[in-house]
Amino acid sequence: MLTLNKTLLYRHHQEGHPPHSHPHLPPSAGMETHQSGGREIKVVRRVLDANDIMAAKNRELFASKGIFVLNMMSSPGSGKTTILQKTLAQLMPELRCAVIVGDICTTQDADRLALSGAPVVQINTDQFGGDCHLAAHVIERALGGLDLDVVDLLIVENIGNLVCPAEFDIGEDKRVVVLSVTEGEDKPAKYPLMFRQCDAMLLNKIDLLPYLEYDPAITLNSVAQIHPGMPVFRLSAKTGQGFEAWVQWLKDQIAAKRRDGERGRSK
Ligand SMILES: Nc1nc2c(ncn2[C@@H]2O[C@H](COP(=O)(O)OP(=O)(O)O)[C@@H](O)[C@H]2O)c(=O)[nH]1
Ligand SMILES: [Mg+2]
After folding, report:
1. In angstroms, what is the span from residue 80 Cα to ligand 2's centroid?
2. Highest mean predicted confidence (pLDDT) among 15-29, 45-59, 203-217
3. pLDDT at residue 15 above 90?
4. Which residues have C-beta under 5 Å from ligand 2, the single-atom ion?
5. Which of 3, 9, 194, 215 is the most exposed place for a label (fewest CB within 10 A)?
6. Alpha-carbon span 179 to 186, nearest angstrom
7. Which of 56-60, 161-165, 194-198, 263-267 has the lowest mean pLDDT?
8. Who's near 139: CB < 8 A, 6+ residues apart?
9. pLDDT value, residue 184
10. Considering every ligand atom, which ligand is closest to the CA of 109?
């Protein structure tokens, strides 16, 4: 493994939390009590309630520090880490960036991303059930490994999965989904929640189009039905094609949040 400059490796399992526990929430969060036959029965009404409470706390913290948070999701191998490497190179040092990256095992993505010079926190979920998503309380704990006073943009590379990460708010400002052309035209139709929940889609690996029987129009039509008006950026993280528009969109979102924050303060 590389020696990572300014990189903090974070292994959630070393903290000893059982799967799906929410260590920073009151034990009653997400619970309601029923009386039945004179006995009190506690019911977990919605697992996601507890996550939403923690996500709101994260969001408040990010707003108080003026940090914009991007949650990047996709299936494994669509190119998240490669896109991030190129994106960070274009944003830094103008913007002070940090990354939280989630994988079930290994610190390989942290190694790759740390080469950018950005502080990187790797979360491994293997020994606490191999969670297939990053929940809000996991992000909250990972934040302890970053100096938030020197961060403008925090990017979270979520665990590779087109299903579960879409269900967990982590307190982010915007969500993007990466879909690569090698995954086939039908994935938005098969996993619509992810595409409905995201604010933009990155269609990656377009350099491979000449070698595939893949029609981008089918994917784009399907996405337009699931999430009308969602911006789609066609990228090649290999050649750099399409990055200008994507990076500009991201900068615009960050600037819009700053303007809103300033308006909020002057009220
Ligand atoms: N041809 C091509 N390969 C790419 C592109 N983006 C990523 N890859 C390759 O796809 C593989 C998976 O990329 P990675 O960034 O690790 O995906 P992740 O699992 O979503 O983080 C690697 O071998 C990358 O080199 C691209 O735009 N074009
Ligand atoms: Mg990756």
Report:
1. 5
2. 203-217
3. no
4. 80-81, 109
5. 3
6. 11
7. 263-267
8. 58, 100, 156, 170, 171
9. 95
10. 2
Report, as an integer, the average pLDDT of 230-258.
97
Q: Write down the architecture of domain 8-18+30-260 according to CATH.
A: 3-Layer(aba) Sandwich (3.40)
CA of 162 to the centre of ligand 1 (A): 16
For residue 152, give every residue at least 6 positions away whose Cβ sits within 8 Å of its Cβ, in sequence order, or none: 66, 67, 68, 95, 96, 97, 254
Which of 75, 82, 87, 120 is the pocket-test mutation for ligand 1 (most atoms within 8 Å of CB)?
A: 82
Measured in Å, residue 81 CA sits from the centre of ligand 1 at 7
Closest approach atom of ligand 1 to CA 235: 27
- For residue 155, give both structure tokens: 């990017």
| C-beta separation of 167 from 133 below 8 A | yes
User: Would you kindly state where each structural domain of the chain is located, as residue ranges?
Assistant: 8-18+30-260
Which residue ranges have their beta carbon within 6 Å of ligand 1?
74, 76-82, 160, 204-205, 207-208, 236-238
pTM for this prediction:
0.86
- pLDDT above 50 for 16: no
Residue nearest to atom 11 of ligand 1 (CA): 77
CA angle 173, 164, 68 (to 5 degrees): 15
Residue type, 194: M
The encoded tokens of residue 121 equal 């926190």
pLDDT one-digit tens code per residue, 169-228: 999 999 999 999 999 999 999 999 999 999 999 999 999 999 999 999 999 999 999 999
Per the structure block, which two tokens stand in for 214?
A: 């893949």
